Automatic annotation (TrEMBL):
Record-linked InterPro entries: EamA_dom, EmrE-like
Species of provenance: Halobellus salinus
Domain of life of the source: Archaea
Name this protein carries in UniProt: EamA domain-containing protein
Cellular-component GO terms for this entry: membrane
Residue ranges annotated for the EamA domain, each copy included: 19-100
Entry's transmembrane regions: 28-46, 58-77, 83-100
One matching Pfam family: EamA
Flavoprotein found in the keyword field: no
Keywords: Membrane, Transmembrane, Transmembrane helix
Length: 105
């Protein structure tokens, strides 16, 4: 699946004339890291978790991604989230807790 997605995305980039060159080495390292860590490793872990964890728990855990990204932006980039973002994160975390504590599913 990862290969099919990469080929499709590459084909669309070439077809639309998007520039695939001219980036510095640092950017290429970041591109590869973003593809491997969250893409391949992250999704592979989620798919593997389905063997051991209920589907509802795995699917709702995906909602943690923007919450974790917001936290990382705060810690690594000193970007302070607004009140609405913090409230939204709290709602998401409470929703995850409620969903994962239920017995059905």
């Amino acid at each position: 699946m990862y290969t099919a997605c990469a080929v499709t995305l590459g084909s669309v980039a070439v077809e639309t004339g998007a520039s695939l060159s001219g980036y510095a080495r640092r950017e290429w390292v970041l591109f590869v890291a973003m593809a491997l860590v969250p893409g391949v490793v992250g999704h592979t872990v989620l798919n593997s978790a389905l063997r051991y964890v209920r589907l509802t728990a795995v699917s709702v855990s995906l909602l943690c991604e923007p919450v974790a990204s917001t936290f990382l932006a705060l810690v690594l980039l000193n970007e302070v989230p607004g009140a609405v973002t913090v409230l939204g994160a709290a709602v998401v975390l409470v929703g995850i807790a409620v969903t994962t504590r239920t017995r059905s599913g």
